[in-house]
Write a structure and sequence with these properties.
single chain, 129 residues, Hypothetical Protein Mth938, Chain: A, six-stranded mixed beta sheet, three-stranded antiparallel beta sheet, 3 helices, Mth938-like domain-containing protein, NDUFAF3/AAMDC
Length: 129
């Protein structure tokens, strides 16, 4: 039986600072990932929101499943800051998560600081070119 290439959903089973971002992806833990990321206490996951310009609660299902482990969510909105929708803010408030939208660069820097401080932080990072 010949073994073919197996493509799995991107997942790093741990917490790691983001070493670099840009060119449509991120570097962390001596690896690189093309596309957006969801950094949670359970690990770092490849993340493909349905519409990065209009994030919805459905894009954050995995995060909401881990809400008990998250106090702060940093949402890297790409190059430009965009507000979170009232629907999304309500979902985070109900889960007792403080959500802060910012540019992806600012979210990466803040995530790394809060991670080093061992805070209960998560980040949803939209990739930038």
């Amino acid at each position: 039986m010949a073994a073919g290439i197996v493509i799995r959903k991107a997942h790093f089973p741990g917490r790691a600072p983001i070493e670099a971002y840009g060119n449509g992806g991120f570097r962390f833990a001596d690896m690189s990932h093309r596309g957006s990321l969801l950094c949670l206490p359970s690990g770092i996951y490849g993340w493909e929101p349905a519409d990065p310009a209009a994030l919805a609660p459905a894009d954050f299902g995995r995060l909401l499943d881990e809400a008990d482990s998250v106090e702060i969510l940093l949402v890297g909105m790409g190059r430009d800051l965009r507000p979170l929708s009232p629907e999304l803010r309500a979902a985070f408030k109900q889960a007792c998560i403080s959500a802060d939208p910012m540019s992806t660069g600012a979210a990466v820097r803040t995530y790394n600081v809060l991670l080093a401080e061992e805070r209960r932080v998560a980040a949803a990072l939209i990739a930038v070119d």
